[in-house]
Each structure stands twice: as structure tokens, then as C-alpha cells.
Amino acid sequence: MFAASTVLITQTTTHTTHMEAEWPYLLNPFIIATANSKETFALVSTDTNASLSGPNGIPDLYTYYHGKHNDFMNAYDAWKAQIGTQQGATNTLNILLKGLPKAAYDWDYAIEGVYQKNTSQYKALMPNGRKPFYTGKQIARISAVSQLSIRLTGITALATVKTSVDAMLAALNAANLAQKHQKSQTETKAALLEEQRIIAGTGLYFVLSSLMAMFHETPERVKDYIPVDLLRKTKQTVFTGTVPPASIKLIAKRTLKPDTEITLKNPGSVDIKYYFAASKAGTLPPDVTPRTVPAGLSVKVPASTIGSPANTYLIVFNTSDVADAMFEVSI
Q: pTM of the entire structure?
């Protein structure tokens, strides 16, 4: 099947209109440039909101945008506060885990006072010595404490040790549960913040278009209200657009490390193929197998899987002969 597609790719490279990147004025710079930086968006939004209300402000635009700015900042502050809460919960868990090797040493010492180290009774209680308590993932180390508690059940001579083990286990379980809960809360607030970023970013796009209309003869005046330099400092990481039937489109020119992960999405209704080409003409390199992304799906892949690091032009190909395709890429 792809042999036919390769022919189509070669044929459509003569249609330069299909190879042009998306017209920049149709791309929302506020949403795209801040996709990976809520902090940058907060700075842009705060600066613009203040400029619209300042001595040379524009009341109508300020009234339009101010509520959106406040909603975003409220979500932003809640997210930042939650990050602090999560860090506190993580620190509590880490302190307990750092104290686990010392606790395990004390337990081991007490157990050896009852059962010598080479006896079968000692091996039954500490089959791997103290190592499980200070190496491995968090859940494995907590599990090691739980297992020791179970093994100590019913041994009267080690009742004091079991009490200590159970206390540590209870503290670890509580701290682990709290940390996981706070992490979930952070993810929830991050999702709500992203919703507000899109809403406010769309509002800023309207503000920008209004300013462009107002100052179409002196476009430099737009900089009095929009902190353009903040947006320029942020390299675009999210790309979206459409591709005509049986055509290719240049998405972006990027020099990436082979292990850089790229998210390739297909929000449309027809299959598309992604690959890196050696030039903006988009010719498929003979040693490259494009990554097919079926309609409605997305994949995350290392850059090296869709082309050589020497090929820097990211291309998308519409496999359909009749329908437009849609793409979305995050680098």
C-alpha cells in the first residue's frame, strides 16, 4: 500500500501550496508559544491586562479580557499552591524512607539477638537481609516492611520489634497515600488550569486582532499592550493544521536528538503518515518508514523512529484521495 503512497508524495511535491507551513496569522501565538509554560502565559496575561487598564488603556478590551485573566490567575494560583502541598507530602514520605535503613538495622540487630544470623529462623524473617529496606522503588521498600510485619506475627520474643515495624508501616502507608492523593489533586488542578489557559489564550487572540485593526497603520503600537518579546522567547512546540487529499505538508524544521520524544496526533477522520525529510520539498528518504497514525489516535515516539537526525524537516502525508486530513504534533 505504501508504494502507491510514495508515488503520491513524489507527485505532490510540485504543488508548493501544499508544502507551505500553516499561515502564521491563523495560529494563536498565545496558546502555542506557552503550551509548555504556564508561567510564561501568566506573565503575558498579567502584562496585557495591566496595559489595557493603564493610562493609555482601552476600556472595552479591558472589560472583555479582565474576567478571563482573573479566572486564569485564580486557577494558576491554586495550581501553584497545590504543587507546594504536594511537595510537602512528598518530603514527609522521603523523610520516612530515608529513616528506613536505620530502622531496619535496629530490627535486624534485635532479631539477631533472638535468632543467630545463619539460622533458618533468621532467614525466614530476613531472607534478603536489610537490602530490601534501602534499595528499590518506594512501593517495594514499603512492601518489605509489610512483609516483615507479617513474618513477625505470633513471635512473642520479638513482639517489641513487631510493634516498631507496624508503627513504621502505618506511617509509611499514611504518608504514601497522602502523597499520591496530593499528586492526583495537582493533576486535577493542572487540567483545570489548562482549560483556563485555552480560554484566556483565545481571549488574548481576540485582543490582538482588535489591536491590529485599531493600529493597522501603526502596528508597532500593538507592543504597547502585548509583551511580544515574552512570546518570541518561547520556541513553538505544538503544531496543528490540515492537509489536502493525497498531499504532504511541512510542519516544522527542527534539529532533534534521536531520543527526543514527539507526540503525533491525528484528530481527523483519515489516516496520516509522519516522517522527517532531508529538505522542505518533503521527498520521502529511501531508508525511512513513515509512522502511520490512524484517525482519532495519537502516539509518542522517539524522533529517530521517523527519520535520521540529519533530516530536519518534519512532514505529514494525507493518505486519503478525497478528504482533508488534520494533524497535531507536540515536540
A: 0.64
Class at the top of the CATH hierarchy for domain 37-233: mainly alpha
What digits encode the pLDDT tens for the residues 147-197? Answer: 999 999 999 999 999 999 999 999 999 999 999 999 999 999 999 999 999
Alpha carbons 102 and 33: distance in angstroms, whole number: 49
Inter-residue long-range contacts of 133-140, CB under 8 Å, 24+ positions, other chains counted: 133/100, 133/101, 133/103, 133/104, 134/100, 134/101, 134/104, 138/93, 138/97, 138/176, 139/176
Residue 69 DSSP label: H
Domain residue spans in the chain? 2-28+236-330, 37-233
Are residues 320 and 270 in contact, defined by beta-carbon separation less than 8 angstroms?
yes
Instruction: Give the span between the Cα atoms of 149 and 111, in whole angstroms.
Output: 13
Q: What is the number of H-type helices and E-type strands within the chain?
A: 10, 8
Name the phi and psi angles at 221, rounded to 5: -65, -25
Query: What is the DSSP code (8-state) at residue 315?
Result: E
Q: Domain 2-28+236-330 falls in which CATH fold?
A: Jelly Rolls (2.60.120)
Q: State the residue for C-alpha cell 508503627.
A: 167
Inter-residue contact 155 to 162 (CB < 8 Å): yes
d(CA 26, CA 301): 28
Integer Rg of the chain from CA: 29
